[in-house]
Write a structure and sequence with these properties.
Number of strands: 0
Distance between the termini: 93 Å
Low-confidence stretches: none
Radius of gyration: 28 Å
Mean pLDDT: 91
Structural class: mainly alpha
Helix content: over 70%
């Protein structure tokens, strides 16, 4: 009984170690992805604002 319990405990420790490693690497990957997405949102927002300004100027020029 004791040997089986020890074997089960070792297996549980190994599985938990693998799970912990997966969680840590997955968390880092997600944080990096979020940071990259945030930067891209900021760049695209500024590009949209610039294009809206140009569109306004062109609309004014066409109206004249």
């Amino acid at each position: 009984m004791s040997a089986k319990s020890k074997k089960d405990g070792d297996k549980e420790r190994e599985l938990f170690g693998k799970f912990k490693c997966y969680c840590d690497s997955n968390e880092l990957e997600k944080k990096t992805s979020i940071a990259d997405g945030t930067k891209q949102i900021e760049l695209l927002s500024s590009q949209i604002a610039k294009l809206q300004g140009v569109t306004g100027e062109l609309s004014t020029a066409c109206a004249e």
